[in-house]
Hints:
The chain is an all-alpha fold. It is built from 4 helices and no strands. It has helices at 12-23, 28-35, 39-47, 63-86. It starts with 11 loop residues before the first helix and ends with a helix.
Amino acid sequence: MSGKKGIKKYPLGIREEVVSRIHAGESQRALSREYEISRRAIQCWLKEPVLPKTRGRKPTKTLAEYKYENKRLKMENELLRDFLRSTGRK
């Protein structure tokens, strides 16, 4: 189920086809009847770009980025050690 009562989910292919046919010059009313889709749904599709929701990993870091982060963290640890020594803590 979609989670909300009465809301239909249409496949991405149908959405793309309807939008492309409207851009080609066909009427929303005719396509609404043909596909049995509300005109309001079609209007919403026209307002928003049709992009599939993507889940996934964050972009991978390059070796240079890892080396830079490692160097930064080592410097930070060294500063913290120096600070703790200067304040008399271990």
